[in-house]
Design goal:
Helix content: 55-70%
Number of helices: 9
Shape: globular
Strand content: under 5%
Strand order of the largest sheet: 1-2
Number of strands: 2
Order of helices and strands: HHHHHHEEHHH
Distance between the termini: 46 Å
Largest sheet: 2 strands, antiparallel
Structural class: mainly alpha
């Protein structure tokens, strides 16, 4: 995307994400969502780790297929931030590749109220502040059965953080938190009521 102009990666990624969400909600999407991304060769020399991970995550949501060797290449990179490391683990998990949750659990912090979170207080979303790192770690641990980490402590963290100010940082963040944690709240409510 932009039509006949030089393609712009971030615009292409946003358009594909939006079209995939529409398709997931039952709307008819006439264009191939996979094709625009294949035009961008997943080249670590050309794109940042962040852009590459964004493309891999979107490719997964669109086609569930990727060259797994690319993920192995990402593992060899040095000086990548903690959020990117979490995203690589999550992608490996989604693609059925070997991974370990040990480093995820080791990076967990406990708030003064007892909630579990990952990351630090940096504001910029793209550097992986607490919210996206915690949501990514939560998804990894939720889909992994080899650990005994208390996922309700993550729910508790988000509930307490919202109570400090009455809201999370913005609408996108609120939607991401709720779409991730509402299923946990339902499971806890149902188990307390004795339902399956």
């Amino acid at each position: 995307w932009w039509g006949k102009a030089e393609p712009v990666l971030w615009v292409t990624l946003h358009v594909i994400k939006s079209l995939q969400l529409a398709k997931d909600m039952g709307y008819e999407v006439k264009s191939s969502l996979h094709t625009p991304l294949t035009l961008y060769k997943l080249d670590l020399k050309k794109y940042s780790v962040w852009q590459s991970l964004e493309m891999l995550e979107i490719l997964y949501s669109v086609s569930k297929h990727i060259d797994k060797e690319y993920l192995h290449t990402l593992d060899t990179l040095k000086h990548i931030d903690d959020y990117s490391k979490l995203r690589i683990i999550r992608l490996k998990q989604l693609y059925g590749m070997p991974y370990s949750v040990d480093s995820v659990i080791a990076k967990a912090h406990v708030s003064y109220t007892g909630g579990s979170y990952w990351g630090d207080e940096r504001y910029r979303y793209s550097t992986g502040n607490i919210i996206p790192q915690t949501l990514c770690a939560y998804k990894i641990l939720q889909d992994d059965t080899t650990h005994t980490f208390d996922l309700q402590s993550v729910f508790f963290y988000f509930a307490m953080e919202r109570n400090k100010t009455g809201y999370w940082m913005n609408t996108l963040e609120s939607a991401q938190i709720l779409s991730t944690l509402v299923p946990l709240a339902r499971r806890v409510k149902n188990s307390d009521a004795g339902e399956p």
